[in-house]
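FAQ: What does the model actually see?

It sees only this:
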Amino acid sequence: MWQQNIIIDQKELKSLLKETRVIAIIGLKNDPNGPSYQVASYLQRVGYKIIPVNPKLTELFGEKAYPNLKTITQPVDIVDIFRASHRIKVHTEEVLELRPKAAWMQAGIENWEVAKIWAQTGIKVVMNRCIMAEHSILFGSKERPFCPVSFPKKGV
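And it is asked to produce this:
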């Protein structure tokens, strides 16, 4: 039953984040005012290894950047996605090949069609949640970051 791999429960979110060490971030940009940069910076500060995934970068936060998930040569726990909902589908196969524990679509991003495909293969899926805000709340971070919405829905 694939629905059990769609994570909405706070306990499951906390367990996933506690077990995680490496987070690949699709769409990470070198823009200190941008949502992906702010989230990645926070995640690195609290101890996660960040892998930037953007064909326009060679390095960010002292970490080698990769043009896509297929070129990553190490295990990844979470793939954090900063792409518009309608662009998630282009990453379907490379997420399946990488086999992370989870695929996480940031606040304002959800794609049920792709989520179902990933969930059916055992990959946990989180949608429309900010990994930075969730971590801060669940682990009592002294930082109380504001979660920037990556791709607000039209009309909102």
